[in-house]
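Summary for the steering committee. One of the milestones for this cycle was to obtain a three-dimensional model of the protein with KG4 bound, which we needed before selecting residues for the alanine scan. The sequence and ligand used are listed below.
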Amino acid sequence: MSAPLVLGIETSCDETGVALVRGHELLVDAVASSVDEHARFGGIIPEIASRAHLEAMVPTIERALTTAGVTLGDVDAVAVTAGPGLVGPLTIGAAAAKALAIGLDRPLYGVNHVIGHAVVDELVDGPFPERVLALVVSGGHSSLLRIDGTVHVTELGSTLDDAAGEAFDKVGRLLGLPYPGGPHIDRLARTGDPDAIRFPRGLTAPKDQAKHATDFSFSGLKTAVARWVEARQDAGEPVPLEDVAASFAAAVADVLTAKTIAACRREGVSTLVVGGGFSANSQLREMAAERCAAAGIELRIPPIRYCTDNGAMIAALGSAVVRRGMRPSPLDLPVDSSMPL
Ligand code: KG4
Ligand code: ZN
């Protein structure tokens, strides 16, 4: 008998994602994005995102079904992001998922978006070993997770202030780059000198009051970049954008990879999964590849389209939850904008 067909719905931010997964196989991943509608505001406007999800939901579900060559009747279970995320957008995804679950008389599974960013890797690189560490880095989160049996998650650390992508976007704004600044800084950094400016690495000194050994902090680094740039401007000197970008990106990648690899060693884990939109970052990818190779750690980073928000991550996690026979969610499943792991 073939594995259950799971339809996954993701609407936590500005991407409407609908995907179909059977076992570890991705049948289709349909995404509609409202990112362009937010660009002129320099950040996501929740009301605009909610309206866009509402308009895109039914066409995206239809597109996913047609592309996969299945009908709604073939769907065995419905998975949806229950949080964390923007409450309006989450509510629209949950309403669609509940309507499908009720209409089709199929179980509903509310799942955690952050865990989905890691588990989507199973669709690309195959089933997880019994225990993996996952670094989930995006505009909304920077978390280090230990994952046992694909679905049991322990948070080993997270950011105490800005997420990695958020710090890039804020530094992008202060350098006068368009929103979101992350990819622009990455592009500039490629031609800059990462050793030109020694920016601080947050939360690395023993006196730092982190909750966990692998907590991160990027707001001090962001302030250090702002001060450095202001000092140059006050002195009437040009700001070497490429060097600032490269040195800033190096500081972020250094902290993320050093702490993550130390955690792998501490936990005795030999597989690291990196997910979330920020895993597109070149310096993070390069440093993680080098340092994992040196430490004998297998590094799994899915292709970028599965690192940014999408339905495949939710369908993958839903499929794992269904496979393990976990209990479905109630049909009045609440959404939780700050859902814990
Ligand atoms: O996962 P994602 O698409 O949305 C969130 O859930 O946040 O992540 C987007 C974040 C943004 O902050 C964006 O600037 C950042 O990831 N980002 C990058 C790069 N590509 C995307 N930051 C640095 N370098 C990149 N190449
Ligand atoms: Zn995300």
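Key point for the committee: The domain at 129-303 is CATH 3.30.420.40 (Nucleotidyltransferase; domain 5).
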